[in-house]
Design a protein that fits this description.
82% helix; flat; mainly alpha
Length: 131
C-alpha cells in the first residue's frame, strides 16, 4: 500500500507538471516554462530520492550499519549544499523566473494533497466527508 501510494503521488506529480508545462508553453512564455520544469523535475526527483534513501535506511539492521547513517547524513548534507548553491546561481544570474520556480517546487505538495483528497473520496465509496 505504501509503495503504491508513493507511486501514485509521483504519477500525479508528473501529470500535473506536464499539464502546467503545456499551459505555459501554449502562452509562449519560455523562461517561465523552463523555470516551472526545473522546479517541478527537481521536486519530483527529490521525492523519489528521499523515498529510496529512507526505504534503504529503514530496511537494514540497527547496530550493524551505524556507519552508513553517519556517511549517509554527510552525503545528504553535501547534496543539499550543492542544490542550494545551484539554485542560488540560477536565481542570482536571472536564469529562471523565481515565481515559476517556486510553483514548480510546489508540484509535489499539490500532488500529495490531490492524492489525499482522491483517496479520501474513493475510500468513502464516493461520499464526500461532511463536517
Amino acid at each position: 500500500m505504501e509503495s503504491n501510494l508513493t507511486q501514485q503521488i509521483e504519477r500525479w506529480g508528473w501529470g500535473l507538471l506536464g499539464v502546467a508545462l503545456l499551459g505555459t508553453l501554449l502562452f509562449g512564455v519560455s523562461q517561465q516554462s523552463i523555470s516551472l520544469g526545473v522546479g517541478g523535475a527537481f521536486s519530483l526527483l527529490n521525492f523519489r530520492g528521499m523515498r529510496w534513501f529512507f526505504q534503504l535506511l529503514m530496511q537494514r539492521k540497527r547496530k550493524k550499519y551505524r556507519w552508513i547513517e553517519m556517511v549517509g547524513s554527510f552525503v545528504y548534507l553535501g547534496k543539499y549544499t550543492l542544490i542550494t548553491l545551484f539554485f542560488f546561481y540560477l536565481i542570482k544570474h536571472r536564469m529562471v523566473d523565481l515565481l515559476f520556480l517556486v510553483l514548480g517546487l510546489s508540484i509535489i505538495v499539490i500532488a500529495i494533497i490531490g492524492v489525499g483528497i482522491f483517496q479520501a473520496i474513493t475510500l468513502q465509496q464516493g461520499k464526500v466527508w461532511k463536517s
